[in-house]
Amino acid sequence: MAMENQEEDVVTFLDEVNEHVDMPVAIPWRILVVDDDGEVHQATRFALEGLVVLDRPITLIHAYSAAEAESLLRQMPDIAAVLLDVVMESDDSGLCLIDLIRDTLGYHCMRIILRTGQPGSAPESALVSRYDIHDYMLKMDVSRERLVTSLTTAVRTYQQLAKTALMKRQLSHVVSAVSNSLSLREPEAFVRFYMQQLTDIYQLSPIIALWQPLAEDNALPIIMATDHAHQAWQGKTLSEIVDHPLGDYLREVIADQGKHIFSDVIPLETKDWSLFVLINEDDYSRFVLTDSWQIFQSLMAICAKHALH
Predict the structure, then answer these.
(1) How many Cα atoms within 13 Å fall on the side-chain side of residue 141?
(2) What's the per-residue H, E or C state across 74-88?
(3) Among the four residues 7, 80, 217, 307, which has the most C-beta atoms within 10 Å?
(4) pLDDT score of 124
(5) Residue 15 pLDDT exceeds 50
(6) d(C-alpha 242, C-alpha 178), whole Å
């Protein structure tokens, strides 16, 4: 079974836009329309034109056969919903596609709306009982309002399922990270490990990790780890990085003492030290789920305290 990676789409739910920057273009919801009747595609396009769901537009992807739909589904695991005809190449082409989506590809978040022009070949009660579908409708009875309502609730359900799946995946990785951190005994090793978890779990791109001892008087902040582009800075104190905007920015972070939130700097703090990780992304909150992130940060601080005592 293919890995469930639709949950990656959920990171776009968390965007917050600063009033001083250009508003990013909202990523559309992908909706796959599967039907062997060209007029159905045209009517669907007309009915859903300009539709915005949960502050994001939709984009329709068209397949005119089950075989074409299968190819598209394998390429696009982040499709939110499928408007699916039942009878195409064969009487059960659409039903076979449902089995492909759920059992072969493992797309359990993707919502499926069945549409049929031949109700006798696929009774609603039997289909709802047998298949994981979001809705069932007869083509001749579908109004624009009915279609829009069904698709809106389908996308909303997809969003909720994707968020839950992402949370589960992230928490599973967090538990593994806690276990793997117990053998660390040096600050450098822990910092590198922490930076790797930011990448592996949250797909962030750390640039520089700055270690600030608090238990020692007048201890200088040290650049404990870096990405490849800044390797020459590793092991240096922050005061040694002069005439460079990143050095000036990190000094601003240290001097701020937590009064403001720097959206591209991730803090991890204990009573003995503070760690600040500068990332390449403008705002890390767009890439994390709040609940899993808080658990991750709390557990990493506890692990560091026990590992580096």
Answers:
(1) 8
(2) HHCCCCCEEEEECCC
(3) 80
(4) 76
(5) no
(6) 36
The CATH code that applies to domain 6-165 is: 3.40.50.2300
3-state secondary structure labels for all residues of 136-162: EEEHHHCCHHHHHHHHHHHHHHHHHHH
pLDDT top residue among 127 and 59: 59
Amino acid of residue 210: L
Does position 18 have pLDDT exceeding 70, yes or no? no
Q: Is residue 276 within 8 Å of 307, Cβ to Cβ?
A: no
The residue with tokens 């069932």 is: 136
Distances (CA, A) of 94 to 31, 47, 80, 119, 279: 16, 22, 17, 13, 45
The per-residue b/e assignment along 55-73, b for 16 or more CB within 10 angstroms, e otherwise, is ebebebbbbbebeebbebb
Q: How far apart are CA 87 and CA 244, in angstroms?
A: 65
Amino acid occupying residue 272: D
Q: Which tokens is 81 given? A: 């919903």
In terms of Cα–Cα distance, which of 215, 213, 209, 174 is closest to 192? Answer: 209
- Please provide the distance, in angstroms rounded to a whole number, between the alpha carbons at the two ends of the chain: 44
Contact assessment for residue 278 and residue 246, using Cβ atoms and an 8 Å cutoff: yes
The answer, as to whether pTM is greater than 0.85, is: no
Query: Which of 142, 138, 182 is closest to 299 using CA atoms?
Result: 182
DSSP 229-249: GGGGGTT-BGGG--S-HHHHH
DSSP state of 103: I
Tokens matching residue 230? 């800044």
Structure-block tokens of residue 68: 């074409």
Angle at 173 between CA 212 and CA 75, to 5 degrees: 120
Q: pLDDT by residue (tens digit) across 87-116?
A: 898 888 999 999 999 999 999 999 999 998
Average pLDDT over residues 278-286: 90
pLDDT at 286 over 90: no
Q: Which residues pair with 82 in a beta bridge?
A: 32, 112
pLDDT value of residue 270: 84
Max distance between CA atoms of the chain, in angstroms, equals 81
Q: What pLDDT score does 232 carry? A: 94
Q: Name the residue with tokens 């951190």.
A: 181
